[in-house]
Amino acid sequence: MDITQLSQQLTSRWIAICARRGRQPSTPSQVELATIGVLVAAIRGGPPTSQAETAPYDVSRASEMVNTIQQLDRQMDRYEDPRLLDQAMENIPLQELHDRAERIQSSNSPFPCFEDAVADVLVNWFRDDFFVWADRKTEKCPSCGGPMEYRDSPAPTADERRGGAGRVELHACKDAQCRGAFRFARYNDLSVLMRTRVGRCGEFANVFTLFLRAMGLRAQYVWNREDHVWNSYFSPAQGRWIHLDSCEAARDQPLLYSKGWGKKMSYCLAFSTEGAIDVSQGYVETSKWPEALGMRDTISENELQKALKAITVRRRLGLAKDAIERLEREDEAMQEWLGASDDEKGIRDNLQARQSGTEAWKEARREAGPSA
By C-alpha distance, which of 289, 276, 280, 221 is closest to 254? Predict the structure, then answer.
């Protein structure tokens, strides 16, 4: 029995149970059917598929994409952990940032709302004063101050594994007489990361999501298939999610990657405790969107939307009717913004090439600017 048949069978059984209990079940909507399909797929260990819809796509790659989506969704719960939120507040200079935001709002150039000002001062403080890009630790030897080079990827130690590190980079001094070295463990544990304060975009976005929530802002974690992650927060005044990149201290620059970095992108998916959404079109220049669509070859558009919709439906179960209606209005406004032209979005032109990372690293990733 395939997943589609199992989904239909479960739906039929539910209708029969309702009938025996004297209830009059409503006909499931397409969204509800899609949700059932994705949930059943999760139980069975693969994505809901139909041969007609997925013939051009590799089933294993589509399944991997669905698993990635589900993992990213589960990740959002860690940012609501009271213990971690308290730890974040111990690291954030709340009064200082609040005062900075107040000064901005009292100036001649205030943001549309206080939340915008808070997001702006937070992302700048985080990049400039709290978290350190890994290159600042791997370029100079901690013993002699000389240049270092990448040597190896040793297995994580027991302590590093306890911190969620699945891999480690060993950088050693180029001077053969010096034994200076730096182990860059790619930690995933937020408590450890708030202590080490070192990373690249993954570690930056991971901790910054928690800090956004600690500051009371609604936060999204945005995943890009082409190996980058960033955040967004909801602006009540603007009625939409606003781009934030803590690596670059960038706010409301959604075309930073496509236009500034010269990065080619296909999938950009945003996750929050309120659901999941495909925001790819908002991060790609209008003129380059057809090219981006051609790169979206991992999963059918239908199956992608099913997976994201299932998460959104599950995340909103139990919410009051007015809360769901508000979120649905926000969804509609966001879809309208995603489909707007670059001019309609008010996109700025002075977007820089990537600032974080070495030149060689940026060039290897094709993020050193459009002309690189």
Answer: 280
| Marked catalytic residue, from 120, 171, 173, 201 | 201
Q: What is the pLDDT along the chain (372 residues), one digit of tens a residue?
A: 444 555 555 556 556 555 655 555 555 544 445 455 545 554 444 444 433 343 467 888 899 999 999 999 999 999 999 999 999 999 999 999 999 999 999 999 999 999 999 999 999 999 999 999 998 888 899 999 999 999 999 999 999 999 999 999 999 999 989 989 999 999 999 999 999 999 999 999 999 999 999 999 999 999 999 999 999 999 999 999 999 999 999 999 999 999 999 999 999 999 999 999 999 999 999 999 999 999 999 999 999 999 999 999 999 999 999 999 999 999 999 999 999 888 877 666 678 889 888 888 888 888 888 866
Amino acid at 345: K
Cα angle vertex 292, ends 289, 298, to 5°? Answer: 145
Q: In this structure, is the dihedral angle defined by the CA atoms of residues 58, 255, 284 and 46, taken in order, positive or negative?
A: positive
Counting every residue, how long is the chain? 372
The residue behind tokens 């059918």 is 300
Strands 132-133 and 148-152, bridge-based pairing = unpaired
Q: How far apart are CA 8 and CA 368, in angstroms?
A: 50
Question: Any catalytic annotation for residue 245?
Answer: yes
224 — phi, psi (to 5°)?
A: -120, 130
Q: Which of 73, 116, 120, 245 is catalytic?
A: 245
Distance CA 136, CA 145 (A): 12
Amino acid (one-letter) located at 104: I
Q: Reduced to 3 states, what is the DSSP secondary structure of residue 228?
A: strand
In angstroms, rounded to a whole number, what is the distance separating the alpha carbons of residues 193 and 223? 19
Q: Which is catalytic among the residues 120, 228, 252, 278?
A: 228
Strand pairing report for 132-133 and 198-199: parallel
10 Å CB burial of residue 234 (0-12, 13-18, 19+) is buried
Q: Annotated catalytic, 228?
A: yes
